[in-house]
Amino acid sequence: MGIESIIVFLIVGAIAGWLAGLVVSGYGFGLVGNMVVGIVGAFIAGYLFPKLGLAVGGGILWAIVHATIGAVIFLVLIRILKQA
User: Fold this and answer.
1) CA 6, 43, 67 angle in degrees (round to 5)?
2) What is the chain's pLDDT, residue by residue, as a tens digit (84 residues)?
3) Who contacts 12 (Cβ-Cβ below 8 Å, separation ≥6)?
4) Is 0.90 topped by the overall pTM?
5) What is the rounded CA–CA span in Å between residue 31 and residue 27?
6) Which CB contacts under 8 angstroms, 24+ apart, belong to 42-47?
7) For residues 52 and 73, is the Cβ–Cβ distance under 8 A?
8) How far is CA 21 from CA 14, 32, 73, in A?
9) What's the CA gap between 28 and 7, in Å, rounded?
10) CA pair distance 80, 53, nearest whole angstrom
11) Phi and psi for 56 in degrees, rounded to 5?
12) Which of 24, 26, 49, 68 can bridge 16 by disulfide, Cβ–Cβ 3.0-4.6 Å?
C-alpha cells in the first residue's frame, strides 16, 4: 500500500467518522477519534454487507457511504453497551 492509499484511507475514515458522529448525536471524538471510528466502521460494514447480500458501488463516495454506515452501527453498539 502506497502513501497515497494510506492518506485516502485516513481521509475516508475521518469523513465517515464525522458523518457518523452527526447521525448518532452526542458523539464527536475529534479528528483522530473520528478516523478510528470511520476505519472501524469500514471494517464492520465490510464484514456485514457481503453477509447480508448487499453490494455498494465503487469509488470514493461509496467508500465514504460504506464506512459511514458501519461507523453508525459501531456508535450505536457503543451507546447500547454504555447503557447496559
Assistant:
1) 75
2) 788 888 888 888 889 988 988 888 766 677 788 888 888 988 888 888 888 888 777 788 888 898 899 999 998 998 889 887
3) 38, 42, 60, 63, 64, 67
4) no
5) 12
6) 42/12, 42/13, 42/16, 42/66, 42/67, 42/70, 42/71, 43/70, 44/70, 44/71, 44/73, 44/74, 45/69, 45/70, 45/73, 46/70
7) no
8) 10, 13, 11
9) 21
10) 26
11) -115, 160
12) 68
What's the pLDDT at 32?
A: 80
Cell numbers 457518523 correspond to what residue?
A: 20
Quote the cell numbers at residue 11: 481521509
Q: Give the cell for residue 31.
A: 479528528
pLDDT for 72 equals 92
